[in-house]
UniProtKB/TrEMBL annotation:
SUPFAM superfamilies registered for this protein in UniProt: Homeodomain-like
Gene3D superfamilies: Winged helix-like DNA-binding domain superfamily/Winged helix DNA-binding domain (1.10.10.10)
Ranges of Basic and acidic residues composition bias in the record: 53-62
Protein name: DUF433 domain-containing protein
Region (Disordered): 53-77
The organism's place on the tree of life at top rank: Bacteria
Amino acid sequence: MEGYTPEEINAIYPDLSLEKIYATITYYLQNRQKIDAYLLRLQNWRETRYHEALKHPSPQREKMRKIKQQRQDSIKV
């Protein structure tokens, strides 16, 4: 929630106490490089898995794709 104040975050997520919000921000500021590196690794991992899933779809995904195509073909007729 970049750009939001702790109070604004608390207004959006009232279950989070201001104490926890400030603690989280403090932790991030003290460990910025480690956290940013972790988030980058996570993003890269997700992208890799997404592209693998597109290249090698599961049998269920293929079945759903065929059903969708059949429905679209029947609408055109």
